[in-house]
Amino acid sequence: MSTRYIASTSLHSSVPAISKRLLVAALLPAVLLSGCYVMPIGNDPQGNPIYAYAPIPVPGSTVGPHGAFAPGAPVATPSGGMPAVLQVRLYPANDLANQTGVLTGQVTNMMSGKGRFQFGYQGEMLVGEATRVSGEARKGIASAYGGRGTFARCEYQMSTPYMGAGSCTFSNGAEYQLHVGS
User: pTM to 2 decimals?
Assistant: First the structure.
């Protein structure tokens, strides 16, 4: 009788293990392959992409088959805008800056007049913020600081929310021309 109990116990204990493995094997591809893709739905008058960030249909918009927006249907976009990560390039403007060459980094435009600014300089990551000048819709300043004490101060002017130019001066005297966006 004890033999039957052991055989029965080993059979029941192996079934949940197989079921758990099967469940993990079935769910793993779904989890790994799931994602969220944001695609542009059109362009504004300046040629910048427009994105719709509504997870469900917006009241007043027309939804076509399979949940897609119908052609020509009105689309709601957020009034404050979603943050945009913009590439930043700093080109040498004096002999001291020529020693490091072109620097690259990014600014995250929060679409609120502020942004996060970061780039690498001589093996050091400089991080700071970019802020629009009060009363000026397109002009701004950006400051970044590194852990070894290096800092940079930049002045820029945006031609669109996604593109701009300016200049940066570093604590060691290096000067760069700043290009924001692509």
Answer: 0.55
